[in-house]
Amino acid sequence: MIDDYVRIFDTTLRDGEQSPGASMTTAQKLEVARALSRLGVDVIEAGFPAASPDDFAAVRAIAETVGVEPVPGRTSEAPPVVCALARATRADIERAFEALRPAKHPRIHTFLATSDLHMRAKLRMSREQVLERVAEMVAFARAHCADVEFSPEDAGRSEPDFLWRVLEIAIRAGATTLNIPDTVGYTTPEEFGALIAGIRERVPGIERVVVSVHCHDDLGLAVANSLAGLRAGARQAEVTINGIGERAGNSSLEELVMALRTRARSIGLRTGIDTTQLVPTSRLVSACTGIVVQPNKAIVGANAFAHESGIHQDGMLKHAETYEIMRPEDVGASHTNLVLGKHSGRAALLARLETLGRRLEPAAVDRTFARFKELADKKKLVTDADLEALVQEELGVSAPAFAFVGLEVRCGTGGPSQARLELCGPGGARVAEAQGAGPVDAAFKAVDQLVGVSATLVEYRVQAVTAGIDAVGEVAVRVRAGQGAAVHPQRDGLPRSFHGHGADTDIVVASVKAYLQALNGLCAAAPGSSEGDHAAYAV
To answer: If DSSP codes are grouped into helix, strand and coil, which group holds residue 256?
Structure first.
């Protein structure tokens, strides 16, 4: 008889970060990891150390911090396991273990494809070769780490008899968790539930390991498939905040956890998640990745607890349960606001940031407070979304090579737009003037003159993060290293790109801040630096 506890394995920092344009700085990853620990996840998959020096550094930083420092408010008794992904190769496994070495509870997660399509077209390996590699590499990982997870990639399309043989060999070699991934989101809940049930019935030694599920959302069935796998006996679910991840994403942590909680009588399973941290953690991940949460997103979307219909409003006024199956406070949503303005002090700002789940170092608080005062002088009220934008801007700044000082633009119908930009760089303050098709184009050309790197703008996105004519605008940009850049334009055959975010009531200023942050990332990725994108491998 297996217990009713479901381990929550969060892979936001690994699989989630593989969403196009979603890469985060090490500082942002550490902030997210701390939030995941407060949330109460059982396992944090911190990254893929062999993918890039930046990924290695991020995993090492998380291993040194999460599970070692105290976590105020954490509901689970044990600190989270810190996990690193590795392909089934000695070099990857050694690299993963080296990154994890400081962790209090380390786990190596290795994988190898088992579907005929993947073995033939991608691995160019026979079934016997796959069996031998699994036995060798799982044992090699176990020799380094007592906690080893193995995933048969594309298990959802693997031939069952062969899959059972692979899993049996992995158990014999020392795997402690067997993760069953629906890598391409192909299965239906009935099929995936039957797959997990078959594994529990047919694989010798399965009672000695934890069976895990990892479902992708290509057909919109990731959460449903995960629930089916848990009902069939799996006791670990691999999920991401906001459901981000490769292609259509992964099973959403907040949706899965709240389904288990809200339908506890029917499903009969529980987790150790502090659900009041769901909305703050969702906002943090959205801010750090630049991936906007859709308003109608379940649990954490802006409209999840909003009611416009008169019939719904009437029902809500009479009894909240007429239209809400969850209380907003249970997931960390609140209809109350601490109003912040130019007369607010540091204590009020810190209290609101604490409510939003944001904890900054003293120096970062000083810089954020100064920006808050500047913003409060420009508009009457500073909202939660304003604060999120300010904190995101702070988290994105990590010893930049070039810092924004000031900008003047002239634009209209009388001729080309003109921009005069001042930056502070390695050689001190410098000024450049440029013309362009519009104020943003002119400002970006001035940035290019001063920074002097070869880059191509591949994405430019503007969003009003607050309401009203004095709204704060947030700009997200993504640039790709050009052929003349000091950093090679590709890594592992994939184009290298760098993203930046900026926020300001002046959208041109926000655009320059975002563009400059992206170029600073490109500069930091030059030889001798570890910043930059990482290669992506799916499980």
So the answer is: helix
Structural domain count of the chain:
4
Same domain? For 205 and 317 the reply is no
Percent helix, strand, coil in the chain, to 5, is 40, 20, 35
Contacts of 436 (CB under 8 A, 6+ apart): 416, 417, 419, 442, 443, 444, 445
Segment 75-132, tens digit of pLDDT: 555 689 999 999 999 999 999 999 999 999 999 999 999 999 999 999 999 999 999 9
What would the pLDDT profile of 260-300 be if each residue is shown by its tens digit? 999 999 999 999 999 999 999 999 999 899 888 988 899 99
SS3 324: coil
CATH code where residue 60 lies: 3.20.20.70
Tell me the two tokens of residue 86: 């590795």
Does 56 score more than 50 pLDDT?
yes
Domain housing 258: 7-289
Residue 398 has pLDDT above 80, yes or no: no
Asked which of 273, 305, 328 is the last residue of a domain, the reply is 328
What Rg value do the Cα atoms of the chain yield, rounded?
24
32: three-class secondary structure by DSSP: helix
